Amino acid sequence: MPALPRPFDTRIGLQSLPSAFSVTVPPLGVRTSTLGAVAASLLVLGFMTVWTLGASRGSTLFALFSIPGWIAGLSALANGIAKIAMRTELALTRQSGLLIRCIGPFARRIALDPEQVVSRLDDGVITTRNGTTRDPFLALNQGTRTYKLLQGYSGAEQVWVHAELQRWQGKS
After folding, report:
1. pTM for the complete prediction?
2. Residue 84 and residue 27: Cα distance in Å, rounded?
């Protein structure tokens, strides 16, 4: 199967050698979708501030009921900031692998077994009572764990990286 062409305007770095495969995914940066997530979380946190202040005038116990709202708002803010600022690196050799996620100087390193890594394209469909949303990504499965890569990147970039990883693994 011939290699897919590299999208001409991609910022993703990919290197595929017989003994090693690496992908560097730069931060998404500020985009409409990432700004929307941050703005929505700030709106929730603003509401929680007003609600908590009002509830605390009644009783401290009543104000404690706002904790789940604070957790949800802060979690949404952290996810929005992560989409804007997170850099991801995937490095595989025939013997070992490493997935690194960095925000500034903070990094999380996840060891991978390249023989157990299975990649797939996922539609990222989430259905709620309010409707259906899609946030497609490249999924890396290893055992019971799934790692999401390339969320917010174009379909062409996702297909290209997936195809190159499949070729390197000898699965195409």
Report:
1. 0.79
2. 6
